[in-house]
Backbone:
């Protein structure tokens, strides 16, 4: 089953100053150096850029060109599949947000879950909040050291 990364997995794998960096870096490297397909959502890619380049990121932001390079290096791999929102994205997002009482930032979680459901992938995250979407079709892997 194709794995799709949450933003937090990419951040922890990228930033050496993050707790458990080595664990997440190793997970991502094993996946990207393997032969199994993995998914990369434009929402995840943009979220990664938004967070790591923020001027107030702890210990300083990642330079924009370096952050873009992380995403482009992943997407250049032959077994990386871009997983954009599809025809059912709005319907899935709306229904998940409604069923799970998502408000505020949790609506973005519903969007990510909708993409994983739509592409029949496994959502890999460190965020326990995604558990709420499992009864509605999300295949979930909570990745913790």
Residues:
């Amino acid at each position: 089953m194709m794995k799709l990364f949450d933003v937090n997995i990419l951040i922890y794998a990228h930033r050496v100053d993050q707790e458990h960096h080595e664990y997440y870096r190793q997970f991502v490297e094993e996946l990207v150096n393997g032969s199994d397909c993995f998914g990369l959502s434009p929402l995840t890619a943009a979220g990664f850029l938004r967070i790591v380049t923020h001027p107030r990121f702890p210990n300083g932001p990642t330079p924009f060109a370096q952050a873009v390079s992380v995403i482009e290096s992943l997407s250049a791999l032959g077994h990386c599949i871009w997983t954009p929102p599809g025809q059912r994205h709005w319907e899935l997002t709306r229904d998940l947000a409604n069923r799970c009482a998502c408000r505020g930032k949790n609506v973005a979680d519903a969007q990510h879950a909708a993409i994983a459901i739509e592409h029949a992938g496994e959502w890999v995250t460190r965020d326990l909040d995604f558990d709420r979407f499992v009864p509605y079709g999300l295949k979930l892997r909570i990745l913790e050291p």
